[in-house]
Design brief:
By secondary structure, this protein is mostly helical. It has one domain: Four Helix Bundle (Hemerythrin (Met), subunit A) (Up-down Bundle), CATH 1.20.120.1630. Helix 6 runs antiparallel to helix 7.
Length: 236
């Protein structure tokens, strides 16, 4: 007779993760309108509502299927690579800069005649990107926010779900949603500048994390031989 594996309960660190994932888009939304100088901005509202919903969807999915990861992502584990903290700092600043620049762009009218179809494409890209990242997090119990060898959490290679196609599908989702979708939803060509910086940082992080895993995680080198591409099948 088979038995079902009981999911671990969400602990205080898990609730910390949930709070950050819900409050961050709300706070950034307030900053966006403050910098725009008005709340009378249709695409600003579209972005903020969609931003909250995709984070909420990710949180609900993790609570249902991988609450252990919510707990792990609420605190920094030991052994985090120092270079990763630097890259995460730049990545975080580029995300905030994207919001800041988009708000100022609306206030001062730097971007004009932005095609509406591109804004709707941006909405679709945000959703697709978050779905891909969420899927990656649901199947990967070791999807922590920093790069480290997780000896304390039985770190192992994941080959299922999107990991059967590329080695870092969660990062693909981030690049699609954050650094391509968001500037388009916000109708801002100028916001593509910090977005490009963030995308380059994410690619550097992908390369360095991949090198670390091949050197330190048993079985990862064989996995890299089977799944050849880091982010884009046929390209890289």
């Amino acid at each position: 007779m088979s038995t079902m594996t009981r999911q671990p309960r969400i602990n205080i660190w898990g609730y910390n993760t949930i709070a950050k994932q819900i409050l961050s888009p709300v706070i950034l939304g307030a900053v966006l309108f403050a910098l725009a100088g008005t709340t009378d901005w249709v695409w600003g509202w579209v972005f903020n509502i969609l931003h909250v919903l995709v984070w909420l969807g990710m949180t609900i999915a993790l609570a249902a299927w991988n609450p252990e990861l919510l707990n792990a992502r609420g605190k920094r584990g030991e052994g985090t690579k120092s270079w990763d903290m630097v890259l995460l700092g730049i990545y975080g600043m580029s995300w905030i800069a994207l919001i800041v620049v988009a708000g100022l762009d609306y206030r001062y009218g730097w971007t004009t005649n932005f095609p509406t179809f591109l804004a709707w494409d941006g909405c679709l890209l945000m959703i697709v990107g978050f779905v891909l990242t969420t899927w990656s997090m649901v199947v990967n119990r070791n999807f922590e926010p920093t790069v480290r060898l997780q000896d304390d959490r039985e770190h192992h290679v994941i080959r299922s779900g999107p990991y059967a196609y590329v080695r870092h599908p969660g990062y693909v989702g981030v690049m699609i949603s954050f650094f391509l979708g968001m500037p388009l939803v916000l109708n801002s060509y100028v916001a593509l500048i910090p977005a490009l910086i963030g995308a380059v940082v994410m690619m550097i992080r992908t390369a360095m994390e991949d090198r670390t895993l091949q050197a330190e995680l048993p079985g990862y080198k064989a996995y890299a031989e089977d799944v050849r591409f880091r982010l884009a099948p046929g390209l890289w």
